[in-house]
DNA sequence: AATTTGCCCAACCGCAGACTC
DNA sequence: GGAGTCTGCGGTTGGGCAAAT
């Protein structure tokens, strides 16, 4: 796709934009080491970076944070992403939270560049109702959205959540202790029965 | 060899909710 | 309680590179 010869939006303001240099990474990492990953505006200032706090936060979360895995998403992880997306929809941070070392940005990118195409292909291939998994995906996602609430929107599902338990609560409990992908996969095998709660 | 096209992914934006004063 | 600020999220953009022409 040919890029239109427009001015880069990265150059339109005084703060640094675009790719981070190794020097910037070092400065940021050093400040976070002493001050911790919070008060990002302050972190940016302390590091002497001509970047906004938001940019520093993103760089830390997606790149500098310890234990970040990069690239090579395994079949098992891909399967997990598909299943979690089926449950949670485009809630990338929640999905990423169940995949140790993966960031929401990476999952989102992977979904947009790989998995969404796969699903479209499947959708085109299987038009018969019993095989239309994409429709099932959409239905499941919709049900899940209504169960866990949609970006703060309140509805009568909130009442359901008060008396019932939410999947988020269950999934959140997985954060305690080391995550086991295989275990999570097996848990998600049960997802059909979960929907009987909805 | 040069140019065009398509893809990937890092980084940005806008918004909403949480937090602080 | 309200205003201002910070944080986190999902959507989008655009630079860089490889493949195709």
TrEMBL record:
- In which broad location class does this protein mainly occur, judging by the first location in its UniProt entry? nucleus
Q: Name one GO molecular function term.
A: DNA binding
InterPro entries named among the record's database cross-references: Homeodomain-like_sf (IPR009057), Myb_dom (IPR017930), Myb_TF_plants (IPR015495), SANT/Myb (IPR001005)
- Which GO terms of the cellular component aspect does the record hold? nucleus
Q: Sorted alphabetically, which Gene3D superfamilies does this protein's record hold?
A: Homeodomain-like
Q: Taking every annotated instance into account, which residue ranges of this chain make up the domain Myb-like?
A: 12-64, 65-115
Q: Where in the cell is it found?
A: Nucleus
In residue numbers, the region (Disordered) covers 1-20, 119-139
Q: Where is the composition biased (Polar residues)?
A: 126-138
Q: Where is the HTH myb-type domain?
A: 12-68, 69-119
State the UniProt keywords alphabetically: DNA-binding, Nucleus, Repeat
Q: What SUPFAM superfamilies has UniProt attached to this entry?
A: Homeodomain-like
Q: Per its record, how is this protein called by name?
A: Uncharacterized protein
